[in-house]
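Figure 3 (text version): structure tokens given as input.
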């Protein structure tokens, strides 16, 4: 380490030491603490902001107009620290305690996003995905005219795709082991519970392949699923391949000509 580098490092340490610490007792009014906490939040000093806004949520009177935004900023600060469960809980408190506030729909949406961040892969426990789903559905139900409605609907569809993927992958595991009966149970659940997902299409294709396998050879069941696939995805290459030879023949029955007047 060069002498110049040591000097610069010492200066930086000294500068940091001289900077006043964020001490809650220095702010004698709620308004002063709110302002200071917001400044810390804007400077991304997340821990300071958490400390300040957490105190405010405990000290502010129930009817104080600063209280809803104190919950909001406290949740934002938790998000900055990647404390998504705590963020979700604070957003939920805002929505539950101040349902008529202009931030209520935003809070439900952000609570859903915070829970969703905790479900990192479809293969993991979907508990947090289910909690996210509840929050989005609450937002859509309670605030149908919210500007965030489309975003919430999109998030619900994304979650459905993940839920469907979880069941599909389980079914696919059975399929690869040629345990077709068990596989079909999971594939049917995907189609029934998540019909608007792409996994539903893939599950039906897998069902056809299982039914047409030499182990099962259930041609009528395969034909029934193919009829649905041809209706929903008439030009899909994977559908055409899986259902080869099972496309219903065109109706060639002659239509009687109308008698001449």
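Below: residues designed for each position.
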């Amino acid at each position: 380490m060069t002498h110049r580098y040591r000097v610069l490092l010492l200066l930086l340490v000294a500068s940091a030491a001289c900077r006043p610490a964020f001490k809650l007792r220095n702010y004698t009014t709620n308004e002063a603490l709110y302002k200071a906490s917001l400044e810390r939040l804007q400077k991304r000093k997340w821990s300071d902001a958490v400390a300040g806004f957490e105190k405010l949520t405990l000290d502010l009177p129930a009817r104080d107009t600063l209280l809803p935004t104190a919950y909001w900023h406290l949740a934002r600060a938790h998000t900055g620290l990647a404390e998504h469960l705590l963020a979700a809980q604070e957003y939920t408190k805002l929505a539950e305690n101040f349902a008529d506030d202009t931030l209520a729909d935003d809070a439900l949406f952000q609570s859903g996003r915070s829970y969703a961040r905790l479900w990192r892969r479809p293969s993991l426990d979907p508990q947090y995905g289910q909690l996210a789903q509840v929050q989005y559905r609450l937002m859509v139900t309670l605030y149908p005219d919210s500007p965030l409605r489309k975003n919430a609907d999109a998030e619900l569809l994304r979650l459905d795709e993940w839920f469907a993927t979880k069941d599909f992958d389980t079914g696919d595991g059975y399929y690869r082991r040629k345990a077709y009966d068990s596989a079909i149970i999971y594939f049917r659940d995907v189609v029934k519970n998540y019909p608007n997902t792409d996994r539903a299409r893939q599950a039906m294709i897998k069902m056809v392949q299982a039914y047409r396998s030499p182990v099962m050879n259930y041609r009528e069941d395969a034909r029934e699923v193919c009829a649905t696939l041809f209706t929903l995805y008439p030009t899909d290459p994977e559908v055409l391949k899986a259902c080869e030879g099972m496309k219903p023949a065109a109706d060639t029955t002659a239509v009687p000509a109308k008698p001449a007047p």
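Residues 27-147 form a domain with the Serine Threonine Protein Phosphatase 5, Tetratricopeptide repeat fold (CATH 1.25.40.10).
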